[in-house]
Amino acid sequence: MPLRARLYSVFFRRTSTFALTIVLGALVFERVFDQGADAFYERLNHGKLWKHIKHKYETQEE
Amino acid sequence: MLSVAARAGPLAPYLSAAAHAVPGPLKPLVPQVEKLLLDPKGPVLCRESLSGRAPRGGLVATASLNAPASIRYIHNDVTVPDFSDYRRPDVLDKTKSSQESSDARKGFSYFLTATTCVASAYAAKNVVTQFVSSMSASADVLALSKIEIKLSEIPEGKNMAFKWRGKPLFVRHRTQKEINQEAEVPLTELRDPQHDLDRVKKPEWVILVGVCTHLGCVPIANAGDFGGYYCPCHGSHYDASGRIRKGPAPANLEVPYYEFVSDDLLIVG
């Protein structure tokens, strides 16, 4: 059985599992997409963000 | 007419109902000009005269007052276009059953649908979150709603007033004598019964909103019959815990939410 056919029969054939797939997929996708975008942004702006240069301006309090 | 042409079998190419010469597989347009079977008797185009123009009987042309006159042809010379560019690879082979690849093709279609749904759910959730979070207080408003008080600046036995959210805030550093005195007050004597220890987190510090519960005047500290607060407007007497003891006010002075960050620092709000 090819992958697509198995995908259909396991996840998409019943409306209940289809909806469940969408909801769980949205949860996973949100996490992956948000964190990936943040990591990408921080890599592009490495050394420019406040948290990268914060230690230069902090004075040690005893 | 089509059904007649279909039933004619091998004769079908010859039996096309056409008033004009149409190039077909058996009838090239240019080489010989066929003699068109026209009924010369009827020069006026009407139902009867047009029926005579066809090679066979029957109606092949219609003309009416409110529709343009037309003659229908059997388009047996039109080749079916090749749609294989638009077909899925599973059904390109017309000798194979399409049922076997049905699940795989449906899997792809539903996968696209599910992907779209996931993306829209993500977008919708973000839009809703944005609008809802725009209703909550912003950071500068939250920062203004708190006040930091250095406790070491308030000597024992003194009361200091601060402005907090537009209202006076009393911070009172009580002496041990006052603490003992307020702790011994029986609750039955009080109009708004509340024990002193329920109103403070540390017994030496009393934090109160300095608004009289009667009509909202600001009480005077260290005045009145009970050594606490006295409201000059209508004569309400509060004790050193801010509880109403005498006068028209119905309730004790309000205690705001506060916490001691360290021994020296108090944050109200």
UniProtKB/TrEMBL annotation, chain A:
Membrane topology classification: Single-pass membrane protein
Annotated GO biological process: mitochondrial electron transport, ubiquinol to cytochrome c
A Pfam family hit: UCR_UQCRX_QCR9
Main localization category: mitochondrion
A single GO cellular-component term on record: respiratory chain complex III
Keywords: Electron transport, Membrane, Mitochondrion, Mitochondrion inner membrane, Respiratory chain, Transmembrane, Transmembrane helix, Transport
Keyword Calcium appears in the UniProt entry: no
Subcellular localization: Mitochondrion inner membrane
Keyword Mitochondrion tagged: yes
Function, in words: Component of the ubiquinol-cytochrome c oxidoreductase, a multisubunit transmembrane complex that is part of the mitochondrial electron transport chain which drives oxidative phosphorylation. The complex plays an important role in the uptake of multiple carbon sources present in different host niches.
Matching PANTHER family: CYTOCHROME B-C1 COMPLEX SUBUNIT 9, UBIQUINOL-CYTOCHROME C REDUCTASE COMPLEX, SUBUNIT X
Assembly notes: Component of the ubiquinol-cytochrome c oxidoreductase (cytochrome b-c1 complex, complex III, CIII), a multisubunit enzyme composed of 3 respiratory subunits cytochrome b, cytochrome c1 and Rieske protein, 2 core protein subunits, and additional low-molecular weight protein subunits.
Name the record gives this protein: Complex III subunit 9
From TrEMBL, chain B:
Entry-linked InterPro entries: bc1_Rieske_TM_sf (IPR037008), Globular_prot_asu/bsu (IPR011070), Rieske_2Fe-2S (IPR017941), Rieske_2Fe-2S_sf (IPR036922), Rieske_Fe-S_prot (IPR014349), Rieske_Fe-S_prot_C (IPR005805), Rieske_TM (IPR004192), Ubiquinol_cyt_c_Rdtase_Fe-S-su (IPR006317)
Chief place of localization: membrane
Pfam families xref list: Rieske, Ubiq-Cytc-red_N, UCR_TM
Enzyme Commission number(s) of this protein: 7.1.1.8
Domain Rieske: 176-267
GO cellular component term of the entry, any: mitochondrial inner membrane
Obligatory cofactor(s): [2Fe-2S] cluster
Keywords assigned by UniProt, alphabetized: 2Fe-2S, Disulfide bond, Electron transport, Iron, Iron-sulfur, Membrane, Metal-binding, Mitochondrion, Respiratory chain, Transmembrane, Transmembrane helix, Transport
Annotated GO MF terms: 2 iron, 2 sulfur cluster binding; metal ion binding; quinol-cytochrome-c reductase activity
Enzyme's top EC category: translocase
Gene Ontology process terms (BP): mitochondrial respiratory chain complex III assembly; respiratory electron transport chain
Membrane topology of this protein: Single-pass membrane protein
Localisation: Membrane; Mitochondrion inner membrane
Catalytic activity reported: a quinol + 2 Fe(III)-[cytochrome c](out) = a quinone + 2 Fe(II)-[cytochrome c](out) + 2 H(+)(out)
Co-factor binding comment: Binds 1 [2Fe-2S] cluster per subunit.
Miscellaneous notes: The Rieske protein is a high potential 2Fe-2S protein.
Family stated for the protein in its record: Belongs to the Rieske iron-sulfur protein family.
PANTHER family: CYTOCHROME B-C1 COMPLEX SUBUNIT RIESKE, MITOCHONDRIAL
NCBIfam families in the record: Rieske_proteo
Protein name per Swiss-Prot or TrEMBL: Cytochrome b-c1 complex subunit Rieske, mitochondrial
Species the sequence originates in: Gopherus evgoodei
Highest classification ranks of the organism: Eukaryota, Metazoa, Chordata, Craniata, Vertebrata
